[in-house]
Design brief:
eight-stranded mixed beta sheet, NAD binding, 2 domains, alpha/beta, globular, binds NADPH dihydro-nicotinamide-adenine-dinucleotide phosphate, NAD, Rossmann fold, G3P_DH_NAD-dep, glycerol-3-phosphate dehydrogenase (NAD+) activity, 317 residues, binds 1,3-dihydroxyacetonephosphate
Length: 317
Amino acid sequence: MSIAVIGAGAFGTALAISIARSGAEVTLWARDTSALQSTRQSLRLPGVTLPESVSVTGDLAQSALADTLLLATPMQSLSTVLDQFDTPLSGKALVACCKGIDLNTLTGPAEVLSRLKPEATPAILTGPSFAADIARGLPTALTLACQDEAIGRSLQHQLATPALRLYRSTDVIGAELGGALKNVIAIACGACIGQGMGDSTRAALMTRGFAEMTRLAIHLGARSETLSGLSGMGDLALTCMSEQSRNYRFGLALGQEKPFDPTITVEGAKTAEAVTRLAQQIGLDMPICQMVHQLSTGSVSVTDAIRTLLSRPLKEE
Ligand SMILES: NC(=O)C1=CN([C@@H]2O[C@H](COP(=O)(O)OP(=O)(O)OC[C@H]3O[C@@H](n4cnc5c(N)ncnc54)[C@H](OP(=O)(O)O)[C@@H]3O)[C@@H](O)[C@H]2O)C=CC1
Ligand SMILES: O=C(CO)COP(=O)(O)O
């Protein structure tokens, strides 16, 4: 089975290296291949060199020859990239590796794949993993979700390595929402820590944030056990507690009232906006996500955000 990774940012590069380690043939597509061709390093994952067995290409049609395509661009670019494939992707497995909710359709990556490439089989690779850790081959466990059990099983075996353990699921919506929503809560946690609030505040936000994640996911058809697994609770714990996380660092900067480099990918900011609109449409209470949207757009301060959350009517847990 041949594999192509679409997007040579931090995560796409790390995945290509991981797959190459297991001996599979892998092509890495970038929209600009100049740095990758000359240095064999991605500007987004400096210090990590691609092995010889990873072929770099800027030709999407060549990447489309692979049996399995891993889509590793940011969520808001997924539909743009998919639109650039000008041949049908019949019989291919398309594995979305991005975490977020598309602002145009208010859907996750699997729905975007199904809508734009109905001839292919959509799947999701998600869970707690920093690109740098995957590239170093550190032990990691992720969720591979695909509604088609046989294809899911095949993908699980294609993409797992001795260091990267993949758990299989058929709950695609639960897997993608866990990955998308934890980024929003990580921004909230970063903002509180940045503002000088303590670990107890962070624990409260993580727990009540997890309640929001589960509420929305179950409303949209997810299974609660998926949210308790790697793609929900697992990734929430990682992202809310590590300064390796860009979402958490973005929150820290908000809390410290410091600028943040706008070229860094922060999926949670756009996802907070998407969740706010989605929650309004379906009538769900998502106060932390709504607050993160206001914080990210600068329409509320961290102090006022916390005050508003604390002054909500007391209720049963
Ligand atoms: N980094 C991590 O640790 C992890 C990331 N993820 C997820 O993976 C996804 C990608 O993140 P990550 O790799 O870190 O992001 P990066 O910012 O490191 O890289 C993004 C990549 O996407 C490319 N890209 C952006 N827009 C477009 C577009 N319109 N068309 C084509 N290519 C585009 C960029 O190209 P260019 O360089 O030319 O700008 C870049 O190569 C996100 O959804 C993230 O949540 C998941 C798990 C771990
Ligand atoms: O998704 C990730 C870890 O699982 C990466 O998190 P950040 O995008 O916040 O860096």
